[in-house]
Amino acid sequence: MGSILVEDGLLITMDGRRRVIRNGSVMIEDGRIIDVGPADAIGGRYAPETKMDARGKLVLPGLVDTHIHLAQAMIRGCADDLSLVEWLQHRVWPLQGNYSAEDGRISSELCMLEMIKSGTTTFLESGLHTRYGFDGVAEALQKSGMRGVLSKMVMDGSGYGTKSGILHEGMVEDGDACLKEFRAMSSKWNGSAGGRVGVWLAARSLGAVSKELYEEIGRLGREYKTGVTMHLCEVQEDLAYAKKNHGCTPVEFADRVGLLGPNVVFAHMVWAGDGDIRLLASSGSNVAHCPASNSKLASGIAKVYEMLREGVNVGLGCDGAPCNNTYDMVREMRLACLFQKARLLDPGALPATSALEMATLNGAKALGMQDQIGSIEAGKKADIILVDALTPHSTPSYDPVSSFVYSGTGGDVSSVIVDGKIVMEERVVKTMDEDRILREAATNGRRVMERAGIKVAPSWSGREGA
Ligand SMILES: [Zn+2]
Fold this sequence. Notes:
Elements: E1 3-12, E2 20-29, E3 32-38, H1 39-43, E4 50-53, E5 57-61, E6 63-68, H2 84-96, H3 101-117, E7 120-125, H4 134-144, E8 147-154, H5 175-189, H6 192-195, E9 197-203, H7 211-223, E10 228-232, H8 236-246, H9 250-256, E11 264-268, H10 274-283, E12 286-289, H11 291-296, H12 304-309, E13 313-316, H13 329-344, H14 352-366, E14 384-388, H15 400-407, E15 413-418, E16 421-425, E17 428-429, H16 434-452
Parallel strand pairs: 1-4, 1-5, 6-7, 7-8, 8-9, 9-10, 10-11, 11-12, 12-13
Antiparallel strand pairs: 1-2, 2-3, 5-14, 14-15, 15-16, 16-17
Helix pairs in contact: 3-4, 3-16, 13-14, 13-15, 14-15
Bound molecules: zinc ion (ZN).
């Protein structure tokens, strides 16, 4: 598989001691990190096939995005300035309900391209509908060189919260068919590409799944020793639904149907109460915090400070292109910090160091990969990013973590290594045809809009007198 020496950079290792090594090098062999330390010491020890010059660069573990929608990359900008239910019912569902498998594949490629170019090396896809074409998405993931978990959406209803029958007809699926597809995709793809591709279950939101099916999802997750992900407590509507139908909170309901545990990632958790947070902590459940999405859709601001204080493992997620509108984890870290400070009137509520832990170590733990990724340490898989530190917005830099989180963007990421292979070098993605993907996304995006009968006009026409 080859060997790479990442030479003479500023290493932010995220190891147990949180070592930051100036003039540090990382030696990679056969997909794994075999040595980390001062450049002088490491350089003389090995004869690498490839050397990557990291002078003037930060060297960090690849970022882990714990909540994304691959199929939404192609419908970016189609639903700005709307609330969640309007956004879903009138824009996102009709568009996604008109997707073909080709659209699913192209949108996924676009999303992966954007993630690679902003330093994300591992992601959790939050639920693929059958119509997006699981095989095409999995093949795209394999080729991209990224590490990712693809979840099969499971549902047997068409509601959302207390509103029944509002899901677009093109999105509705049968419960047994969903489980059958999960089993087939799991045996075909889980663990493929040398372990880079994982297959999980996604439980659709409250209102679209029966109690029995939620129980079956929890049981299957344990049987397959795999993960489950679900949107929960995203909006107040979730609280109303759980109270009306089950007389409890959404988290208590998840507990009753066997959906709490270390193999579960709940996206959002904006409206989790104190008791819910304690349940999440005691069960070892994980949370994907999505600050951009939660604020853009006016859903609220999650109690991240309280969740971390109580011991809940919280990662970060970019959610979807229509609600973020980027898949840039660097910007997401910044927002996570700023929102907690503003919410609690406390500048220490979420420091830059915590945000970087959320985007690396916590994300790895949420995906059950904490022994494999999330830090730069000998023995771990070589998922590493190089970040240009010689930019106007990060010079001078007195604290590299602060600079990266508060001043950086994903566009500062110059090179990306996943599983010991160079996926991007000096902004050129080596595993994907960027020109083709942009061209196909533009064409197919327009076609999906036409099929769904949705028109998005510019807010300002610019015409005189208009
Ligand atoms: Zn989502």
